[in-house]
Structure prediction request, 346 residues.
Amino acid sequence: MSNARDQIAGSETSIKRGLDFIYRVAITTDCFDSYGNLLICCFALVGATSRDPSLRQLARSRAKKLAQRWGRAHPSVPPDASSDLVLDFVLVRYALSRIGLRDLALNAQMRTAAKRFSAQDLLGFNPVSEPPANDLSYACDCGLKNQRGRTFCKQCRRRLEIQSRYRVWMRALASTYVSGRCGILLGARYLDVLKWLPTMRPFPVCAGENVEFLRDAIYAVTHIVYTLNDYGTYRLRPSWLPREFAFLKANVASACERKDPELLGELLDSLKAFGLRASHPLIMRGTGYLVAEQNEDGSWGDPDEENIRTRCHTTWTAIDGLRTYAWRGERLSRPEVKSMLKRWAK
Ligand SMILES: [Zn+2]
Prediction:
């Protein structure tokens, strides 16, 4: 590809092939039952924030079809809903609000359901009083979510894998932001989660021996971008988050070298949010990589990966990295954050 304009034209076909892949997988029963809510988010956000009108229309109509099916399976919030199910409802309601579909009765049910859980239940730590936890394990293979601090599963005695504090923080940023947008308090307020930003610096300089730790730190920073720009809606001024901007820029080349399309997709859309244009060398490099590395079936990532959620998520982030956004100006989703950012930028 010779220039940025050719690259954008080439990307359009890649994006639609990618969305076709996700939709083909999304409508299978297995995938829909376990991952349908996130795929509704994928289509709704592409439909809400893309500059290409035909892409917007295609994605919105798919989001609506998937949402109708999800709504038939989940007509109301059950009184004994688990915290995970409440979060599923929140994600779907946020996604649909982005394409103009609101349901106040369901929001009220979610508000009631969320009150049954503490911040610890919903986020794994209490952001009001402590920084993101560094002793929280992933759910065990047997299905049990163990208490903080445990290194072996209480139920099956397997060794547990501990989540990095960046990952715990990233999930809490997304959950509290999205629920706040639906008027629901999900354990804690978004600002209580964001306020730990200074303690999460400095970000790791290079992958070294622990690539996953670096990836988690990058995902945490991309989720600062997504929550502060309302998931692809606004551009952010680099001077609001100078260290985060530099950190994202510093990791594009290595994501290409490590063949990591999922991370690269998130790096590219975040850097575009900071104002990097299609002709910027980092955007051109990343875009060229993604267009060249798309699989035959339209997906990105390892085609032999058995986890269908991973396959869909990698494809989703690559699409987001490639597409062009209809930015609605330069601003923060929560304007009151500006003075905090200014303090933290020093
Ligand atoms: Zn277990």
